[in-house]
Automatic annotation (TrEMBL):
Residues 358-509 form the F5/8 type C domain. SUPFAM superfamilies: (Trans)glycosidases, Galactose-binding domain-like. PANTHER family: ALPHA-L-FUCOSIDASE, ALPHA-L-FUCOSIDASE-RELATED. This is alpha-L-fucosidase. One of its GO terms (cellular component) is lysosome.
Length: 509
């Protein structure tokens, strides 16, 4: 279906929606006709809205990338594809469970393992090529299946997991032909999808085509990445095998944030116009984009590339915290790369730093003072038959309950007050994005005496919220902790929105 046509269909749908009203149940969106009353009095969605799998994916927020493979042993970032399989020679048995344990300490909820990079070497015993781990004579590679170990470890640790599989294959003599797509790449994806129907994301990067070994041809092969991989077919067949997999990248369901430095725009919409290059507005999204395409920020924890290299060092906990505020805190997910070394484990220097960061995150963002405050809203919509929309829903730590203003109210204030003054440093806001991203402008104020209000975070662009926004109240992401502010109250003034604001949670730390 071409985009213009789809756009037309969606516009028509949106018109119907506002004329007749939509009701949202927990899992299914149902069209209401005038004859079916909106017994829950739910706000109408503002399109586009996330699919169930996108909604689950956004809730993962912070997860790891593990670049490990042939390059770990050749000290390269991009292998040419002519590497002998025996060069893959771990000094100990690779231990994907350790990878996940270490990142869990940092507060990450899952991880994506690179099981095939551009050099084409596969870390699982695939039927699609001999260029795989089962062919290495290394004693510590014998019988090792990274995909299987990784999936099992994640399930055991109750973490989300998925795989990075490079579409570009500099080893394959078939690269550039249709046979490569059908018999190699799509099959590899299908094999991987079978390592668990509960995977949350599959990662295809944008580096595609160029020079390589290609089975001895040693030449340059260019493809058209928009059409070559048959993405629509790929997407459907993967979803049949594993319904919650978000396909990342071109044609997928989440967008590249547009840089690899770990930041998103302060204004950041989940909306995008898919069909043009999805990363065009990577950092910011497109306010009236017709497709729900939330941003993912991929960034490196170490200083010498995506793979482990001798002497590489992780960034400081403080810098990691800044990155967290500028990605997770700006309506994007953060996939932070923690590369295993030649022993097949995450080395101590990274493990220690990840733990330090995990402690920092807990100290700074877990004691939610909003829960002890009296909370009030200047507009709250009337209860439905079973649902309520009271401001108390903002502090119940339940992502499925929300406060909502009355229809047509786009200017509304939420006030949190304490009897005794509290030291505050951060405010976290979450829209209930299942009904669409709405808020366009807001401000934050505090009071020391309970009656006069002064602005906070005035240097920050307080525009969009989206799935999650974390505001450092001193306005600085690089030095956000500071002394904090003594406050007897905090108020959030939503000044403009596409329709009545709908927020699921607000936290104050
Ligand atoms: C890029 C690749 O070319 C890099 O090697 C790395 O895997 C990064 C995450 O994606 O497109
Ligand atoms: Ca809630």
């Amino acid at each position: 279906m071409n985009n213009r046509f789809l756009h037309g269909v969606l516009t028509a749908l949106a018109l119907t929606a506002s004329a007749t009203g939509f009701a949202q149940t927990n899992t299914v969106m149902t069209l209401q006709t005038q004859n079916v009353p909106n017994t829950e009095n739910e706000p109408r969605p503002v399109f586009p809205v996330p699919t169930d799998r996108q909604w689950k994916w956004q809730q993962t927020e912070f997860y790891a990338f593990f670049h490990y493979g042939m390059n770990t042993y050749t000290n390269k970032e991009w292998g040419k594809g002519d590497e002998n399989v025996n060069i893959f020679n771990p000094t100990e048995k690779p231990d994907p469970k350790q990878w996940l344990e270490v990142v869990k300490e940092a507060g990450m909820k899952g991880g994506i393992a690179v099981v095939k990079h551009h050099d084409g070497f596969c870390l699982w015993p695939t039927t699609t090529t001999d260029h795989n781990i089962s062919r290495s004579s290394s004693p510590n590679a014998q019988g090792v299946n990274i995909a299987d170990l990784f999936a099992k470890a994640a399930q055991e640790l109750k973490m989300k997991y998925g795989f990075y599989v490079s579409p570009w294959d500099r080893n394959s003599g078939l690269y550039g032909t249709d046979k490569y797509v059908k018999d190699v790449f799509l099959k590899q994806c299908a094999e991987l999808a079978q390592y668990g129907s509960d995977q949350f994301e599959m990662w295809f990067d944008g580096a595609n085509g160029g020079d390589g070994y290609y089975g001895g041809k040693n030449k340059v092969i260019n493809i058209d990445r928009a059409t070559y991989y048959d993405v629509p077919n790929l997407r459907d067949s993967i979803h049949k095998l594993s319904p919650n997999i978000i396909l990342w990248g071109v044609g997928g369901e989440a967008r590249w944030i547009g840089n690899e430095d770990g930041w998103a725009g302060e204004t950041n919409w989940c909306n995008e116009n898919r069909g043009t290059a999805p990363e065009r507005n990577g950092m910011y999204g497109t306010e009236n984009g017709w497709f729900w395409l939330p941003g993912e920020s991929d960034a490196k924890f170490t200083d010498q590339g995506w793979f482990w290299h001798p002497g590489c060092e992780p960034m400081t906990a403080e810098r990691t915290f800044q990155m967290y505020l500028e990605t997770v805190g700006r309506n994007a997910t953060l996939i932070l790369n923690c590369p295993p070394d030649r022993s097949g484990k995450i080395p101590q220097n990274q493990a220690r730093r990840l733990k330090e960061f995990g402690t920092m995150l807990k100290n700074r963002l877990s004691n939610n003072l909003a829960k002890t405050a009296a909370v009030e809203a200047t507009s709250t919509r009337a209860n439905g038959q079973t649902r309520t929309y009271a401001a108390g829903n903002l502090i119940d730590e339940n992502a499925d309950t929300y406060w909502a203003a009355e229809d047509e109210v786009k200017d509304v204030t939420l006030t949190f007050k304490w009897n005794n003054s509290q030291t505050v440093r951060y405010v976290t806001l979450q829209e209930y994005v299942r009904l669409g991203q709405r808020v366009k402008s807001f401000s934050i104020e505090y009071t020391t005496d309970g009656s006069t209000w002064k602005p906070l975070a005035s240097k920050v662009k307080l525009t969009t919220i989206g799935y999650k926004r974390i505001i450092p109240l001193n306005g600085s992401t690089s030095n956000s902790y500071g002394d904090g502010f003594d406050a007897k109250g905090i108020r959030i003034h939503i000044k403009d929105a596409k329709a009545c604001p709908v927020l699921s949670e607000i936290a104050i730390y």
